[in-house]
Structure formats: C-alpha cells, structure tokens
C-alpha cells in the first residue's frame, strides 16, 4: 500500500535549483532513509513532503490526496514531522509537550490523554511525564519530541537528522524505537548522516546528489564504494556479514 | 481541568475582594458597611440613607477607578503573555511594536494643542498607537505571510525611536502646565476613569480573551517555532497575525485611557509562568487576573502612600513589581535560567 508518491518534483530557491525532477514512491511500513552530502537537498525534500515548502500542484501525494490541496491541519492528521533541532521557548512538562501532538485533532480530552500516555510509553518517556523539558538530556528530549510526533497517530513520520547531537547509545535507542514503529505500521522517512547506521536500519535508501536521485534501493544496493565515491568524493571500505552491511569505514590518508 | 477552574475561581474572588478593599481605602475613610449599603441601594435591594458625598466618592470615583485598574492590569498582563508567546521572547511586552511611543506622541500632541482634559487626548493616543503599529507592520511587510519576528521587532524599535523624538519635540515646545499633564500621562494614571470607558474596555477585553483562549493550544505550539507549529497542524502566520491584531487593539485601547503603565505587561506574565506553568490554557487567564490584582493594589498605593498627593502609578508598579520579580527569580533560578 502506497503512503507517499512524488512525481517529477523540482524545487528552486531564489532561482537556484535545489531539487531536480524527483520521482519516488514510499510504501507503508518502510524505513525510507535519504542520504547525501551536505547541500544535496535532503532537508528540502523532506520539507516538500511535509508541506513546509510551497510546491506546485500534482507533485506530492499523501495517500490519494494532492498535498497542495491539504490544510496544515489535514497534513498533521496524516503525517508528523520533526525538525533537526527543536528549541522550545518556555518551560513545559513532558506531558504538556507530548499533548501538543493532539492540536490538530478534535477528540475528547479523555481520548487525548490516553493517546498521549500511549505515545509516551512508545518513546519510553512515560516516567518523565511531569518533569520539566529543560531538565532532560538531549537524548531524552529527542525521545520526547518523538512521543509528541507519535501523539499525532501518524501514518507517516518524517525525521530530519534524528540522531544528530546524540551519542551512540542514544542514537541506537532512537533508531530502535523507529524500527519498532515501522513494525507497528508507521512509515518512516528520515535523513541520516551515518551511512553505517543508515544501512543497518533502513529498508530502503535513496541517495541524493545535487538535488537529483542517483539511486534508490536496498542498503546493499546503494551503500557501495562506487556510489559513495561519486556522491561524497570519499574512498571507503565496506564490511558485510551475512550479506548485511556492518561497517562503512573511510580509507586512511585520503585528502578531502 | 478541575484545578484550573479552582485557580480561576480563587483569583476572581481575590480580585473582587481587592476591588472592594480599593473602594474603602483613600483620603476619605468610608467604612465597609457604607460601601455595602451603597451597592445594595444601587441594586435597589435596600434603601439605607447615606451621605451624598460618600455615595459619590464610592460609585463615581473609587469604584470605577478600581475596576479600570483591574481591566487595565488584566489587559496588559494578558497582552504581554500573548506577545511573549508569539515572539518566543521573554523580553516582549505589549508595547513592543511601538504602541506606547505612538500613543505617547499622539497624546502629547493633543496636550500641546490644548486638549489636555478633553476626549481628544485619548483619541489622539489611540490613533498614535494604531498608526505606529501599522507602519511597523508595513515595514515588515516584505516578509508578510510568514513575517520574521526579528524584522517586526526591529521595525517596532525603529518606530519607537521615531515617535519618542516626536514626543520630545512636543515636550520641548510645551508650557509648564502642559508639561505636568504630559509627564503624568507618560508615567501612567487611572485618575480619569469613566464608566463609559470601562464599558467599552470590558467588551473589547471579553472579545480578545475569548478568541485568544480558543487559540491557547496554538500559542503553545508556537513556542516550538513556526516550522514545528506547522507540523503540529497550526498555521503560524495566520495565528500570529490574528493574535497580534487583537493584542494591538486592546493595548492601544488601554493606553488611551491610562497612559503607559510599565512593568505589568512584562513582569506579570513571567511571574504567572513561574507560578502556574507555561501552558497558555491556564497561563493567559491566570496572568490576566494576576495583572488585575497587581494593578488594583498598585493604584491603592499610588493614591494613599503620599496622600493627598497622588504618585503616578507607573512609579509604584516599578518600585513594588521589580523587587517581587527579583525574589521570584532568585527562588526559581533554574527554571528562569532555562526560559532565558
């Protein structure tokens, strides 16, 4: 079953083309990871899908609906998205933050409270419910944002660099939560800089170069020495075990 | 939910008691019993003979003044909370977009033109405020639709500076008597309270409170930034424009009846945030009540502390507001540190 369809999407900013003729389909329950060098258009692509960037008609479809015809509220009822760095202006408790995920919905306060509790459990933050968001570590906060996004009960979850600024333990924690979400039927679209983690967790990877897709497929199809050399201009060694990538290591003494 | 209703009820009762207290206190002592009879006589429940001067002082001087103080305090704190929420900036206050300086320039102009005691002065203030904010918006309009907070704030600062220089010019050419009026107005005053103003201000405040309260969750979402608010299903540009418009009109109306009373619009929202948390569903109303109670007591002090001379209320709000705020800062260092 199709969740997201993009047809010949191009996007320019101040006459500079950022995305060029992107077409792709993302199926339900996929962990779809977008990789590419800085400035390749990954974030812009996510922002086009989540409705933040103004795009032309009939380019992005959420389910059967054209994104352009949907209001912010309708989009939020279908998908939730998290920005790479979220700064909260004032002091809220974790529960209050997670409750913000229910703004687009007209369910009863009792139903909202139930959904908020379930979301906090899924993101493993239920024991922080009454704690101030300011008293949490970056990793814990990341899980709170995730719980907030889950409170929207989305069909699609869009995460831009969900593992940045996190140590390896928290990175794995977030990625494991993401994997379990796909098991529960949620489609995830994410950008991840760490190619090894991307290969290990993604079900499908799209590689971007200068706003164009240079490959879509399984991690083993896309994370190859040739493609990485082409896109990142870096020589790497790729290690596999049982046909699964377990390491992407840059070769020593190469000038970048 | 229950705790919120209980809190609002408690604050409302406390506000009514504060207003009652304000009507008793003053250079002429009128006992509580007389006050009660004046009220019940007015409602035709009783018919106790009272001295006409006491009735006049209670019903035409003290009561409207105390109620106006409550309305002005409620409005300033309420608008300050909205402004801080929209701009995600703890230094935002209702006068942020040049409202105060525009109003002051308008009022000062009317005073210099010889309209010190007529209705032209508040009208001049209101038009000055609206004119100043309109220009501020127009300057920031290039990014209208998803206007930048920084552009809007900087435009407000620039307009503030321009209107302040106009005010300074009028002060420079004013005569001594006019200067006294100007200074009293700049420092804020509730001395010219009228039932008619109370009526208009109440209606306007009620409209703003109902709409803003309806949008309180959207205001919470804005604290995560415009992009995240959009992801949560909020149209940030629309919500910000609507709330700014409401806060601007209410603040302009307040300024034109009471002058520019500082501190309430910035300190009370912070104090309320420390006491009741940041969720706007509770914060907006709680902050309004706190502002109302605070200003009623400040007005009592301004009338009585050096009686029969009246001290401008702006001085009182700063003298008593600042130490109380500092006390809260010291006792909530961690939370406030995070806010700032």
Structure description:
The complex is a heterodimer of chains A (256) and B (340). In chain A, the strands form three sheets. A six-stranded mixed sheet of chain A has the order 6-7-8-3-9-10, sandwiched between helices. In chain A, strands 2-1-4-5 form a four-stranded antiparallel sheet, covered by helices on one side. With 256 residues, chain A is an alpha/beta fold. Chain A is globular and about 55 Å long. Chain A contains nine helices and twelve strands. The longest helix of chain A has 16 residues, at 168-183. Chain A has helices spanning 42-50, 72-78, 94-99, 109-122, 138-150, 168-183, 195-201, 219-222, 225-232; strands at residues 2-13, 16-27, 31-36, 60-62, 65-66, 79-82, 156-160, 187-191, 204-209, 212-217, 236-241, 244-250. In chain A, α4 packs across α5 (138-150). Chain B has 340 residues and is mostly helical. Chain B has a single domain (2-339), classed as ABC transporter involved in vitamin B12 uptake, BtuC. In chain B, 76% of the residues lie in helices and 0% in strands. Chain B is built from 15 helices and no strands. Chain B has helices spanning 2-24, 32-42, 52-87, 99-112, 120-139, 149-173, 176-186, 195-214, 216-222, 226-231, 236-258, 264-276, 280-304, 313-331, 333-339. In chain B, α4 runs parallel beside α11 (236-258) and α12 (264-276) packs parallel to α14 (313-331). Chain B is globular and about 65 Å long. Chain B starts with a helix and ends with a helix. Classes of the chains: A alpha/beta (256), B mainly alpha (340). Chains A and B meet through α2 and β6 of A and α9, α10 and α15 of B.
